[in-house]
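Case study 2.
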Amino acid sequence: MKSPDLVLRWAPSRRLPQPHVAVLWPVHVWPVVAPDQMPALNLFQTAILGLARAGKRDLAEMAELLALDRDLVRFIVTKELQPSGWLDQRLCLTAEGVRMLDGNGRRTPRLIQQFAFQDAVFGHWWPRLSADLPEIEAKGVNEQGRLEFVLERGSGHADRPIVLPVKAPPRADLTEVLQAWRWHRSDLAKAQAGGMADALPDDVDFGGDQIEFCGDTSRPQLAHVWCEVYVNPDDPQPWLVSDPWQFVPAVKWLREPLQQGLNQFPALAERMRRKLMPEADTGSMNATEWLAQLELRVELDLSAMPHLNHPEHARLREHMGRVRRQRDRLLHQERIQNEELNSLLTECGALMEATVQWMLERWPIDTRDWPRTEWTRRVLGDLLRELPLQAPLDDDVLAVLCGQKLKDTRLAIERRDRPFKALWVGALLCTREHDAHPLRQLPARSLQWARMLELTDLRNKGSHASGQRLDRQHSLDMADFAVDWHEQFIPYF
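Prediction:
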């Protein structure tokens, strides 16, 4: 893999969440002229500058006196007070810091060159600006062609991030940049206030009318920003995406678009499934936690199946998701009602039915020259026996399929809205004209015609309220069969 031209990572000293999946997220980097710092002090800035004027030089002591987290105090000092020129490296007040503390400091923000970031995957503007571009370099490329980064040198652990593809073109929009700058200032102020919006001063003015692009607006720089996908068991979301700037641990403006578009990135979904979903002790979870983990696992499993990620296969994805959810839930459920097993088998049949409908659409035939009079069981039987399959249909299967009417079979091929057996017969007859048809190429032991019939019958009896008691294990085995039966066709999508 060719290394991205520019890889950016803020907050290099922070500890990575464990476990996590590292991601290199592409962005279009736009140079802009924008105000650098707010001219007004917030509550915590004022308190720290006051302690500095009183001669306090130790961050730990400041944190203790203010009853604040030490890391928060360090953040305010190193990210705001010192870059603003109000504190020097010895934590002494500068002349400008004295003026600011006395209410006589600079009131007009200084205009400097900064960088704005447009998401190169989904197209929106990130609510972040930066005065610098903190570049990191890859250690190298491993045998699988994946980039390797060593961020915690003491551990020697190498991260191999997933590199998301560039999908959205650059788009210069000054209005959106201004909004991004305002959000950035607001998030920064909240971070300085420990996440408490009420701690912000009432007179904060986010201004920004003087923001403008600089340089060639037709050619922004492409970069990749480091972030992580991880799980927080205390968060209601099944997984989170870290804030690259670490104003907050995680941000929804990265998670939400990725969650909606995860099916576009099967490699990422598969990595998330393997690293974020270890086999857990389900006995230690409450019902809500267990269902959340189940939903995450199904979501990641589906996203790792590229053929289900296309809009035209939405119905297949829907039924595959329902089968997997119901199967996994019933697998760990102590008491199961008969109607729950019926529902599972119904979804299994629907999955197989949708698969056959896809075959009919993918490998159609022209039925206009078919006879208009009803065929006999013998005629249909002869047609089915002569099909170019890997192995002929056995007599029990033929006995069932020969009962399909010609009209239903024709409509199954033309409209794909008939009952399953008619769809099945239609798909079989289509093999006569398509050498690459999967029913023609796959072996009979893989297709398991008799078991298909068994599942169809069980599904029909359940949907007709026959009162038949279903066996739990047999129903779960049928669910596994339906999933495996569908997955054998993946290479043909």
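Strands lie at 7-8, 20-35, 111-119, 125-130, 140-141, 147-148, 162-163, 212-213, 221-230, 240-241.
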